[in-house]
User: Fold these one by one.
Assistant:
Number 1:
Amino acid sequence: MLFPYARNALPGFVARHGKEEEVRRWLDAVAIEHGSICSDEVIVETLQGWIDQDRKHTALKALQGMIWEAGYRDAEFTAPIYADVAPALRQWRGSGLPLYVYSSGSVPAQKLFFGHSDAGDLTPLFSGWFDTEVGGKREAGSYEAIAARIGIDASEILFLSDVVEELDAARIAGMQTVLVDRREDYPQPRDGAAAHDHPRATSFADILLPA
Ligand SMILES: CSCCC(=O)C(=O)COP(=O)(O)O
């Protein structure tokens, strides 16, 4: 729902805001990636193609965040969140654990998402936010940088993801990992050459953390 909304709104958003410095910066980054000077029409088509591929490009993610802002503000939608997530986050935070978000979505988009979730405003639960400005989610260096920024040894950090390659990168950096296995939405490899040994949970309720 969020991605189709951004895809449909992109042409109008670029036409209305494409000359604003903070928007132009990201449109120019797309043009550079595209390999040549190109029209805004081509930039929009490129971005829509990236949405179709679920590409995690920092420029796309920054622009999506700006587009979603209007949708949240005008109450056109709330951010979809699995029913087991908010109760677990509240319990973990209540027991004193600091919680952080690391997403390919831009930090402004993350704050909008958790601020307008189906379960209400969850932003007070989080102690910090990280996006791909720190590095890609499949690169171990990103997790090393996050641990350094948080000031907690990587071995004390549990990283949750539904993507095995992200968990591999976090583990290389020394973090503990759990695959949040949302089988119906994001099936992950289980057997054969792609097998892995990250602990699995099908719900946040099954993730037991030290108090
Ligand atoms: C949380 S803001 C929007 C999410 C988003 O744009 C995205 O690509 C999700 O990436 P993630 O790394 O959180 O799986």
Note: The chain has two domains: 2-73, 85-206.
Number 2:
Amino acid sequence: ATGLVTQDPYRHKMWGMSELSVSGGTRQSPINIQWRDSVYDPHLKPLKIHYDPTTCLYIWNNGYSFQVEFDDSADKSVIMGGPLENHYRLKQFHFHWGAINEWGSEHMVDSKVYPAELHLVHWNPVTSTSFEEAIMENNGLVVIGVFLKLGAHHAGLQKLVDALPAVKHKDTIVEFDVFDPSCLMPSCPDYWTYDGSLTTPPLTESVTWIIKKTPIEVDQNQLEEFRMLLFTSAGEEEKRMVDNFRPLQPLMNRTVRSSFR
Ligand SMILES: Cc1cc(C)cc(S(N)(=O)=O)c1
Ligand SMILES: [Zn+2]
């Protein structure tokens, strides 16, 4: 993983390992999850996921990743259970990936890095009145992380991949209706959970992370489609959208809990 340092993905942005952690940063993300240091918590419940496919709105390229946005004006696509005290609404999901299959994920497991990582971002409608407010709230957000590994073709992901050429450039958008992101979840219920932060600005320490233990499989062509997106807007000199992951952050005084023995 030392190679990663020279591959500092956001070398053109000062919020990787090199910047002063945000607000005294005691709970920054991503982290390396040391399996043997994680603590089984028998009080952790199974995660309950109820996504309504008709809440899917559109896909857009935000200059960091491609993002699928959902209608979060009601409790239609929600998660509950797991480490959570109440339900959280799905707002968006996006991915992080590398230029090659040897790296790309933000979190690692025993220093193993995956070629990509899916983040499903949810906010707490009980303690916040909007997603924007929840970003600034302690535990205002829950992000589910799912690792992607190279393997079989993923039929559910392909619908998303087929739309990517329409959002090649930064700030482009395409309608995307009726998609159920549950198809991107592994069937294995096991997860780790820890308190962390956003991995992109504003890097606020408002996230309860739920990292699924089992990766989903996608094929080479699907990963290569991610890598054909651009960081840059139409008309600018093209910069391929790759290595859009933040470097590992110090664990500091945190314990990662597991839902499984
Ligand atoms: C709210 C939010 C926005 C963005 C762009 C990225 C995240 S992350 N990578 O921490 O899941 C969260
Ligand atoms: Zn993310």
Note: Helices lie at 3-6, 131-134, 155-161, 220-226.
Number 3:
Amino acid sequence: MHSLEQLKQSLEGAGQAHILQFWPELSDLERDAFLQDLSQLDMTRLREHCEGAARAAAAPSGSLDQHLEPVPPASIGSVRKSDSKALTEWEHEGLLQISQNRVGVLLLAGGQGTRLNVQYPKGMYNVGLPSSKTLYQIQAERIHKIQQLTDRKYGSKSTVPWYIMTSEFTLAPTEKFFKENHYFGLEPSDIVMFEQRMIPAVTFDGKVILQGKGKIAMAPDGNGGLYQALVDNKVLEDMKKRGVEYLHVYCVDNILVKMADPVFVGFCVSKGADCGAKVVEKACPAEAVGVVCRVRGVSQVVEYSEIQQETAELRGAGGELVYNAGNICNHFFTRAFLQDVAETFEGQLKQHVALKKVPYVDSCGNQVKPTKPNGIKMEKFVFDVFPFSRNFVAFEVVREDEFSPLKNADGAATDTPTTARNSLLTQHCRWATAAGAALCDEHGNTLPAASASAGDSAPVQCEISPLVSYFGEGLEMLKGRTLQTPLILDEEKAKELQAQ
Ligand SMILES: CC(=O)N[C@H]1[C@@H](OP(=O)(O)O)O[C@H](CO)[C@@H](O)[C@@H]1O
């Protein structure tokens, strides 16, 4: 650890002497903790970071809009437009890769859940399903199921390792939650948690913000902090050791996410892609999703916060949105590509500026909760590596089956616990009905199939455990049955029905 004198000098050199302004007021304990935090800062980097943030906020990089063009539809693979033969082939390819232990999943779970307004990791959120399962549990069970489906098909004993990128905010509670829940039945050694870096929030004039008298305001470095974190935590070495060649990266909040989706993996592998992204058709021009498009001829994502409204609203001759390939934060990477990024491109990743309200102590030592943005957070985006890819592919999937993110607290118009819960229940009603079941209410009245597939209204309470079905398969035991709702079709209930 540095001595106080050394630290003072180097902070002065970095233009950040104010950080120690309240030092005389701190207790011994607070001083120790603060000194410990500060001695981890690289002062040259700190100076660059602060100056860079202030510069970037003062002169935002010009809009990219004039350089955009859509990805030609012909170069986007599509679930809707492909015949069942192609889909089956991709699925087989994906399952084959899984059976050879060549596929891993990586969860981006470092976010603070600010919009959702929770103080704990988003993955621990219970959206109010009949089973009360959290997002983490649903995801764990899907991993379990895809391993099982693979093993049944190929007679293998497959493992899909689960890499979980957390942050200083989410690591400890996530670890505790997994432990308390016995890793949801997965092998603990196949779950690898690691932490992304945190970087200081900075004022508009380039000064680190003090969150407390002995604490600087830190924020995770964006989901694109992944690439630095892969290096810091030797994750690529771990993948290599396990023989994992392909990684499905996804963000924590999509309740419909198909972990290690064999169709997507199989599609990407059979196209020889090193990098891929799932997209859905955008619901409306203002939907808060990035768009996969080309910028100066190169495929990449332009984030919703960085596209101009006129561009987002552009429509083609048939009335369709010109930029309608909505990014759902489900990416495919080969290990070789990630290695290239780690070795060559990480330093070139773009830094995005976010202006945020950051609570701080003012120069008189008062705690202030700002009402308008006062700080700059710099973030990297996970998709900003796409331009470095040699063979990028996009794959369009069906929204109702694959995308319903949890971003906001109930009361907001979109992407809430209610919309997430409804999407899942509606999907499960569709699966049950397609398998030949009729659903009835507690009085025995048959519920019309239409209400089982209604969009926003409260759907029929039919929840199918991922341990029973991964994407609607294996529900033959429901054929010809009338089932009373609320229904939780878990493994036990499924066995019971099978035996009848
Ligand atoms: C940096 C990044 O990955 N942004 C993603 C991510 O948005 P957030 O608002 O950061 O959750 O998820 C969206 C899909 O839910 C996707 O459309 C968007 O491009």
Note: The chain is about 30% helix and 20% strand.
Number 4:
Amino acid sequence: MIPTSFDYVRAASVPEAIQLLKNFNGEGKLIAGGHSLVPLMKFRITTPGTLIDISQIQELKGVSKEGGRLVIGALTTYAEALGDPLVAAHLPVLAEAIQKIADLQVRNKGTIGGNIAHADPAADLPALALALDAVVHITGEDGEERVPIQDFLFGPFMTALPETSIVTAVSFAIPPTEGKSTYLKYFHPASGYAVVGVAAVARKTADGVINHIRVGITGAGDCAFRAENVEKYLLGKTATLENISKAAQLAADEVDMGEDLFASSDYRRHLCEVYTERALRKVLL
Ligand SMILES: Cc1cc2nc3c(=O)[nH]c(=O)nc-3n(C[C@H](O)[C@H](O)[C@H](O)COP(=O)(O)OP(=O)(O)OC[C@H]3O[C@@H](n4cnc5c(N)ncnc54)[C@H](O)[C@@H]3O)c2cc1C
């Protein structure tokens, strides 16, 4: 199908984008890389009256280090993040996850901010963002706010982003060098989206006791989630195969598993356990 007709404007700055969102009163939609929005428009699942193109706002591009966090401008593409020396030095797990997103074309156009703002339940970055205690930087009519990722995502394609606001950056906590992190994914064979994707970040004391553990899971339910039962089970315990296996069994307990033509809820539950166990072994053993 082709989209219904729409108008197009280009915003040159964040204040202009916010003003345009206000002017179009719910009928305008931001477009960044367009790799999630345009397919939805083609299926006429969304029919915006006007596209507000933010892709040329230079201040929303690039990566910087602020204290213990990497701040990634919302319009930074996957390919740009992948080639960034700060990402390579401080957040190799982001590069690991990005390499698992779709194909070169999608990685050249899709943006970090678009991925998070779109909140696709099968997208990869939400799981990693949860495991890395990400914070979403938002600017709107009332100024700037910073929202922890757990309060930002709350349902399929649903976020806490107000209608006339824009995501300007996503910041990720840099894991301590003595810890380990990973992102593992069971791909949908056609689209490359996560049927189940698991991000894990962990750290142990010198005598092997787990003193930091975060597990984020995507693809399995309505929305990416933090596997807090898994984390609680492991925290303070030693990293043994038995503890890891028991913890992984709790991974699917926290949300209702999704079901579609490709994977039943039982299969997703199974994948959750298997991929959580593999991720935990990688970061804890
Ligand atoms: C064939 C194909 C395969 C894909 N496979 C994967 C995959 O394996 N894993 C994965 O994670 N993703 C996948 N994607 C999705 C892709 O990564 C998207 O490009 C990305 O998720 C959205 O980024 P975008 O810049 O293209 O956003 P757009 O499509 O431009 O926008 C998406 C939505 O976010 C909003 N938005 C965008 N930027 C902002 C902002 N700064 N502030 C507020 N709202 C904003 C838009 O208004 C729109 O509602 C795939 C896409 C395609 C076409």
Note: The radius of gyration is 19 Å.
